[in-house]
Amino acid sequence: MIVREARACRWKGLATVIAVVVTLPLLSGGCAVLDGPVLDPKGPITLAERDLFFKAIAIMMIVIVPVFIMAAIFVWRYRGTNRKARYSPNIAYYWPAEVLVWGVPALIIVWLAIHLWHNTYKLDPYNAIDPSVQALQVEAIGQDWKWLFVYPEQNIAVVNELAIPVNTPISIRITSDTVMNSLVIPALGGQIYAMAGMQTRLNLLADKEGTFWGRNVQYSGKGFADMQFQTRAMSKEDFDAWVEKAKQSAKTLDAATYEVLAKPSEKVPVTYYSGVEPDLFDKIIAKYMHGDSHLMPHHKQAEITEWDQWISSDD
Amino acid sequence: MGSVDIFGRLTIDSLPFYSLIAASGAGVTVLGGLSVVGVITYLGAWRLVLFEWLSSLDHKKIGIMYVMLALVMLVRGFVDAAMMRSQQAIALNSEGYLPPGHFDQVFSSHGTIMIFFMAMPFLSGLVNLIMPQQIGSRDVAFPFMNAVSLWLTTAGAVLVLISLVIGKFSTAGWSGYPPYSGVEFTPGVGVDYWVWAVFISGIGTTMSGINFLVTIVKCRAPGMTMFRLPLFTWTIFVTAILMIFAFPALTVATAMLMLDRTLDMHFFTNGMGGNMMNYINLFWLWGHPEVYILILPAFGVFSEVVAVFSQKRLFGYLSLVLATMAIGLLSFTVWLHHFFTMGSSARVNSFFGTMTTIISVPTGVKVFDWLLTMYRGRIIFKPPMLFTIGFLVTFCIGGLSGVLLALPPIDYMMHNTTFLIAHFHNMIIPGVLFGYLAGYMFWFPKAFGFKLNEKWGTRAFWCWIIGFYVAFMPLYLLGLLGMPRRMEHYEIASWQPHLIVAAFGAFIIMLGMICLGVQLWVSIRDREQALDLTGDPWNGRSLEWATSSPAAPYNFAVLPKVEGLDAWWTMKQTGVAYQRPEKYEDIVMPKNTFVGPVIGGAGFAFGFAMIWWIWWLALLSLAVIACGLIVRASNDNDECVMTASEVKAIEDARFAQLAKAPKNEMADDPGFAGEPMQEPAT
Fold first, then answer.
1. What CATH number is given for A136-294 in this structure?
2. Does pLDDT of A297 surpass 60?
3. How many CB pairs under 8 A join A and B?
């Protein structure tokens, strides 16, 4: 009996230790996470993604919670030293149990799959946020190790800063002039890879003013850790003023300046350019197509390299 | 020029004297190697090591050597992990102690080692040791090819280890994405080390897969039909098929990357018609089945352990088999979920996302069947069972985060963040590693004839599981804070507390590693008190417990006749177990040969030569491999006969030992269910 009690005590002690160890970091982290970019979104895309995140967790609890409860009860009740528990060494099949263990997860997956298809289409980064509104066009070019943002309609460019008017859809064309990068602004949405010779697209909208960080999250070499920028979501008037400020810049981004800029550099300060080489973005893509120029009948059709075209030519 | 060319691009500057940390890593590696040589010399064991082990074709010895390799690489991979965790804990607005070029090598070697040179050898080791005995076979189908697999895997592992001493390792991560891994962006030998280590060991693994599959199909004992196979063997059956189909994709991908790097081709380069996405497709076409290659055998171990230590039949055998097959099939339909963010259409992403979530159904079935196996059992909490219970609970959290990541809109948010890191470590530590450690502690007596110390095994378990939670739960939260993976330093202050907690978790895991080491030491020291005299230390259910511990070279003096599921359990119930045959017969065994280690050594030399452009050495080592194969193929005298009288001598000793042994080694355990067992016949 004494042995058994000692064992029970030890089990309780261990359970307490585990409970403390598991919950402490969760609690300490909880507060900080709540105002993190993902759980406190500043735009509809991240908001929708966050909601899906919690919905999916909730539905999966139908399976997860029983596992935890069953594990706890079975381990305690059917411990070998408990001679009071029933012992049936030969039960190995019980059809209602089989139906449940296949059926319930399958039903949850059906629910999830429906939501998955619906949300994947709805939140496709290529979708215009509001087709009835003219989106602000931005071109993002990943370089070692900085982001260049070109505003073709405004004829300005800026390094390591993205200014956007609030409540206006933004459509970003993305490519890379170096290795593979990935563009994300956690508070607003993303991410999409940037690849040389190819174009990807990311549509975003900020519905709150503020400064949100964005960065490359695909490892790209020694300057990777510092390859970040601030996104400034501002009112329409402030944005116009910002554009004016950029237009005042003495620097312009012609082909020669671009070549210098594109060379590897780290921690590049925010730099404005008041004029941009025409079709700079398409020329950067075309640079990598020389080996296969027939793939690129016209530089405006750069999207042909998207691999989706190989998968589904009937679109 | 001639004198320079002899060493290719290898110069004296390749030695790591440029940095104290790199030099000390190299020093530890060299000292480790020298101390192994020293210990063998001190013990005067060279003859034993060379003629009984290195040249052995015995599947059990090959299995043990695989596991030894895995444990060594586990230590090396853990050191990498500890370096990363401590760097990130201090690197807020500071460079920490690791510069980017070094930090990048550390995360690249950590992933490469843990997947290719810890998990894979551990898996092959357990399979080699146990699977032939479970199916009542005397050997694997191709004993010589088995040795070649082992030595090629070792060659790859040694390449990774040597990169710490001569030159540098890759900075391109364990997945080596081009164009970064191309010669334009990462000249030097680092990525070449990675490519060749993975390529050479990958060929070994492909051959292992063929060997395991043919063994299961062709070498089963009489009466051992497919649906009487123990679940561990079933998982190996599916794993072997996955290995055969998936590993060629990796071999091709790394070979093409090598051609890009060495011969200036343009498969995956930015320009000249290269397409990096092809690499990423090929890599994950291997990479996702690989995840299941790793975890299915662990599922197999859990299935064995949970039945034995619940003292009950496994619940839902057919469901578990079908679920294993379903996972195997589905594992080839999900690879694109590794790059939802690469710009494929909503339709493509939805398809692969849905397929991924579907895999969670058979996996969930398994979890419930294991739980139902414990239901109305009599659970004995030995270390293997503790690892199994820890796995059951923790794995669900990993499954949950996995399904979340399978939803493309959530993946857009979480991809490349520490949430992803937390997810796959949540699958690989409590899933894969706990499974292998459970198997290691479960089957250790079968390999060496004595049990591992349970007190230290239990301590190791608690350190591992608590350490796991403390180290990886913060990474989930960091993912929600947007922290990317592979950050050498950072500026966001709210990340640091989590990283400090995570580093503390790594420290607890280190205590777990130490407990494992102490367990091994204490167990060897006190082995006389924990001898396994019956060969069946846990009151087991499958045929590997019918052999002596350690098993005789031929495993079974007389091939067992299998009457149903749980073959050994049934034999014990019906009194067929431990019966002496009328007479013994001669047994044909493969002779030991050094051709396996020679091919492995030449494989290493070939890889090293290709990395450093030492062309004469590359040609020479290829010639050695070719000669080795020709010599082996033309040798008709590669088997020896163990005569009936020799077999009888071994078996007489075994039965004498059985007569002295306690009736049932589990009988004094307070949790023992009291199942009567037949007297050993003498």
1. 2.60.40.420
2. no
3. 336
